[in-house]
Design brief:
167 residues; alpha/beta; eight-stranded mixed β-sheet; 7 helices
């Protein structure tokens, strides 16, 4: 995978995905993280040799894939002012944040995918459920699968509400 990937949120699950992607051969210079916590930001810079900034808006230009890895209660604020290129694959790993909400906040130009990785993903031994509406192209689904496969196996579910069972 050669995509430029922006992580909005740099917590434990984002760190697991970043580590898994690098271990799978993804070039660290193609990974960026928006993380406002200065201590966590420095840890990510040091551990993975990646670009980290407090502002997602600063890092969004040119990102082919955006992983939304913030707590559900701060998602709307984290996306405020974010401008993405049309056709960007956006993967949300925030529990309970529906695609309809993401579309309202991001607009119609992105290919939206929800995923629910489980805790063993922190050890790269997880199983991540994914869901996308039928209108999301195969290439976007493949990108989402590749990102989540960095921490274990993936399985696509046919309905968004089935992600609730995974959480």
């Amino acid at each position: 995978m050669t995509d430029s990937i922006l992580f909005i949120g740099g917590g434990q699950m984002a760190g697991a995905l970043i580590g898994g992607l690098i271990a799978a051969g993804h070039v660290p210079s193609r990974l960026r993280v928006a993380e406002p916590d200065t201590v966590r930001a420095e840890t990510l810079r040091r551990e993975y040799k990646i670009t980290v900034d407090a502002s997602a808006a600063k890092l969004a230009a040119g990102a082919n894939v955006v992983v939304l890895a913030v707590k559900p209660q701060v998602m709307r604020e984290a996306l405020r002012g974010l401008k993405l290129d049309r056709g960007t694959t956006v993967i949300s790993i925030a529990a309970g944040v529906r695609l309809a909400s993401l579309r309202r906040w991001l607009g119609d130009g992105a290919h939206l995918v929800r995923s629910m990785p489980n805790t063993p993903a922190l050890l790269r031994a997880g199983i991540s459920a994914l869901y996308a509406e039928a209108s999301v192209p195969a290439a976007a689904r493949d990108k989402a699968s590749a990102v989540l496969a960095a921490v274990g196996q993936t399985v696509w579910v046919p309905r968004e509400d089935l992600l609730d069972a995974v959480t």
